[in-house]
Amino acid sequence: MNMFYVYKKSPFYSIIRITVLILLIAGCESLPSISEGPDNPLDPANPNNNINGPALVLSPTRLNVINNSQFQLELWIVESDSIAAMSTRILYDPIKISAQGVDSLQTNSESFFLQNGGQLIWFSSINNDSGFIQIDCAVVEGDPKDVEGRGIISRILFRHLSGTEASIHISSDSQLRTSKNSEKNPNDILGTDIKIN
Fold it and tell me: I want to staple 103 with a disulfide (CB 3.0 to 4.6 A). Which of 78, 126, 155, 162 is the partner?
């Protein structure tokens, strides 16, 4: 089953149905997404939101996971101005965590990079031996060519393997670029701390 497939005839019904199926089949405790709360830096109402953009954020930043279950994180960009490309590496301990899949969000044009139209050039690879996911992407032919603001870049599926705590980080050498190939590197990078139940 393609976990990122969305049935299009009845959007509300199919979203609920697919969410339930994913929870049952994948054994997820939750499918984290942007939500309110003091621990979520993506919540604009968060009084502790001191993000200095542009920022790359794994959401949620704290997550309780059932032992040996699958779980999903979202990679977001926040407070960006005029970018058209990104290169990042997501790091994890391969003894504790295994990456299962990376969704580029192209199918339903959910990607932050597609807000002005155009086409997304996407490369991603998983290395569960060394414990990293490499993501390189760029948008072309958008109008305007650069995108700005905040939005989701990817959904990433993981599985817990061992241990009672784990962390998933975004590499500090992540790069953002404009359509003219000038650098606009992230000022803040926030990963996820995981506790196992």
Answer: 155
Q: 3-state secondary structure string, 39-93?
A: CCCCCCCCCCCCCCCCEEEEECCEEEECCCCEEEEEEEEEEEEEECEEEEEEEEC
The pTM of this model reads: 0.77
CB distance 150 to 112 below 8 Å: yes
Q: Domain ranges in the chain?
A: 30-196
Q: d(Cα 56, Cα 186) in Å, to the nearest integer?
A: 7
SS3 at position 149: strand
The whole-angstrom separation of Cα 3 and Cα 45 is 31
Q: For the chain, what is the mean pLDDT? A: 81
State the fold for domain 30-196: Immunoglobulin-like (2.60.40)
Whether 193 and 140 have beta carbons less than 8 Å apart is answered as no
Q: What is the pLDDT of residues 74-103, one digit of tens each?
A: 999 988 889 999 999 999 999 999 999 999
